């Protein structure tokens, strides 16, 4: 088993050494490879030693936790609760199963419109399991685009908390770096074209939104605050005025979108990346029809490792040093996704080789928002 401790740190000196030398671990036990991954290209990069400024990681596999830049601990494997086409009750069942299996990190959002089911599941689980306390469960939620005005940010968190049946959340994120207009009933305002009406002022200058986030952190309603879908440029702007630095940037990451530059930027600035769609979201590359789950090399790595592909993808994310947020409504998958193995160097490097140079984004709501966050990216 790999007994290494993986960490991320802030080091200007080694910033130019590249992503892998910084997040790949020092390994405390000899590596034993079961058999060579014939026909799989991989790089013989040795895990370099790295400088640890302070210990930020404990445990391995699904028991791994990281310490955020404000000292709050976050479980490395979180449970995604976005059930796009889910039937009523599906989220309740899935979250209940996840808590029974041992997940202690739930990724929620105002936008998912199912926080009431998450809240009921948490409430009922805690009722049946008095040994588990509210503070043992890390709950993240997010403010949607049309609620970026400072008072609305606060309204959003209060609204989420009451549905989640909690007094505070562990992490509160700005879901997208795009502000939109709302109606009086707190629904999204859409224009004649059916797209969101973008609030240009708050989109160009998110300082008022962030100040409201900081106030929520000060008040203890959110133990940590952060962002989601932020780009490097957006983070640079935010960091210029932030009194409280974002603790997390939740972004799409899987082998078809390794997002290496952004992940590295986050590490360099002590912002923990959290990988959404870590299993490739089951989507396909529009131009070629490729899917992460069908990739022959990734499937070969899974076969070689003796684990299923989802477990390999999650293990790859943990070894790169960030949070992973798999979603499933299938009880057996909820269970197996929480059994994250350690990859050998060879297996890890084989996944890295698949990911290198790829940039296929599956989650892009530009047609809904009427705003393209990533202009120039082909889809
Ligand atoms: P994902 O976790 O990569 O993939 C989910 C899909 O994979 C579902 O169709 C699920 O099917 C399937 N699946 C799960 N486990 C599997 C396994 N072991 N084997 C085969 N298939 C498996 O993608 P995601 O749902 O897009 O993202 C996960 C979470 O990230 C979301 O729930 C949400 O919390 C978060 N997210 C955030 C944002 C954002 O903008 N911040 C955007 C997207 C997602 P079944 O459910 O049928 O098992």
TrEMBL record:
PANTHER family: ALDO/KETO REDUCTASE
UniProt keyword list: Oxidoreductase
SUPFAM superfamilies, A to Z: NAD(P)-linked oxidoreductase
Residue span(s) of domain NADP-dependent oxidoreductase: 77-355
Protein name: NADP-dependent oxidoreductase domain-containing protein
Keyword Oxidoreductase applies: yes
GO MF annotation: an example: oxidoreductase activity
Keyword Oxidoreductase: yes
């Amino acid at each position: 088993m790999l007994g290494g401790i993986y960490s991320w740190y802030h080091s200007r000196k080694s910033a130019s050494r590249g992503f892998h030398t910084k997040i790949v671990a020092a390994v405390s036990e000899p590596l034993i490879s079961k058999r060579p991954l014939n026909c799989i290209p991989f790089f013989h990069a040795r895990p370099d030693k790295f400088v640890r400024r302070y210990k930020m990681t404990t445990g391995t596999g699904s028991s791994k936790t990281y310490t955020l830049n404000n000292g709050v601990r976050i479980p490395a494997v979180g449970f995604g609760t976005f059930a796009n086409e889910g039937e009523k009750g599906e989220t309740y069942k899935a979250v209940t199963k996840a808590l029974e299996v041992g997940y202690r990190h739930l990724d929620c959002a105002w936008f998912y419109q199912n926080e009431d089911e998450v809240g009921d599941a948490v409430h009922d689980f805690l009722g049946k399991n008095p040994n588990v306390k509210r503070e043992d469960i890390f709950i993240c939620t997010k403010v949607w685009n049309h609620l970026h005005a400072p008072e609305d940010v606060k309204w959003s968190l209060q609204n989420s908390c009451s549905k989640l049946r909690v007094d505070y959340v562990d992490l509160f994120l700005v879901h997208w770096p795009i502000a939109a207009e709302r109606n009086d009933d707190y629904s999204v305002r859409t224009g004649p074209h059916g797209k969101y009406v973008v609030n240009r002022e708050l989109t160009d200058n998110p300082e008022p939104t962030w100040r409201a986030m900081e106030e929520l952190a000060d008040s203890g309603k959110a133990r940590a605050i952060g962002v989601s879908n932020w780009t490097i440029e957006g983070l640079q702007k935010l960091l210029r005025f932030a009194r409280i630095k974002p603790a997390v940037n939740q972004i799409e990451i899987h082998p078809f979108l390794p997002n290496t530059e952004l992940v590295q930027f986050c590490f360099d600035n002590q912002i923990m990346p959290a990988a959404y769609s870590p299993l490739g979201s089951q989507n396909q590359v529009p131009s070629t029809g490729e899917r992460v789950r069908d990739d022959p090399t990734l499937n070969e790595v899974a076969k070689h490792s003796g684990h299923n592909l989802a477990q390999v993808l999650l293990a790859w994310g943990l070894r790169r040093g960030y949070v992973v947020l798999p979603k499933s409504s299938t009880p057996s998958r909820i269970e197996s996704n929480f059994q994250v193995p350690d990859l050998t160097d060879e297996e890890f490097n084989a996944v890295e080789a698949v990911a290198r140079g790829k940039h296929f984004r599956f989650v892009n709501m530009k047609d809904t928002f009427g705003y393209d966050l990533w202009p120039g990216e082909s889809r």
